Amino acid sequence: MSFVEINDIKKAYGEKQVLKGISLSIERGEIFSLLGPNGAGKTTLIKIIAEGITYRGKIRVDGKSIEKMMERIGYCPQEGIVCDALTVKENLDFYAALYHSDKSDTERFIKIFNLPAQKKAEKLSGGMKKKLSLSIALLHSPELLILDEPTTGLDVQSRLELWDTVKTFKKRGENYPDNHTLHGGGRETVGQSSYNQ
Ligand SMILES: Nc1ncnc2c1ncn2[C@@H]1O[C@H](COP(=O)(O)OP(=O)(O)O)[C@@H](O)[C@H]1O
Ligand SMILES: [Mg+2]
After folding, report:
1. Pick from 11, 101, 131, 153: most CB atoms within 10 A?
2. Tell me: the pLDDT tens digits for 15-29?
3. Quick check: CB of 118 below 6 Å from ligand 1?
């Protein structure tokens, strides 16, 4: 059985049928991209898995229903999860407290991502902000990492850095033994086949 099994998922918003029976599976250690034009339903599928919005069909993660897996999932929504009024360090400490994670872990992310700890989040560049969001999503050592439009709005350099970081975490067997990544990317991720393992 695959780590993520999605079978015949259907989702409608009122009369509008957005997902018409999507099925896919993601293996352990795989980086999986959802590609499609705007409005195709990528975010809807991601929200079903990561936010628990209602759906019809069947989803199993590690053989369990997603409701039982929520705390093992790291999620970075399209709009990010950073609090603008807080500094980088305060953001990490805040989410660490929320996840009941070890606060000392936040220092590790500051070092790995080379983040300006004392800078207010509202003053970060787009790339830095995405990295801070990614750090927050990784704080509780999730087994499944879900990123929605992770590179939208980033320049080429920042995109490459972000993917390098995702790949680094995928390889960090000692800290992230079963790292899987699902991201809804849109067209800009076409051609990144080197990131699809
Ligand atoms: N909360 C909602 N209520 C009504 N329609 C929605 C809602 N969220 C998304 N939609 C519609 O569902 C379709 C798919 O949207 P979305 O999943 O965001 O697509 P994508 O992420 O591929 O661009 C779009 O037509 C969008 O307008
Ligand atoms: Mg979307």
Report:
1. 131
2. 999 999 999 999 888
3. no
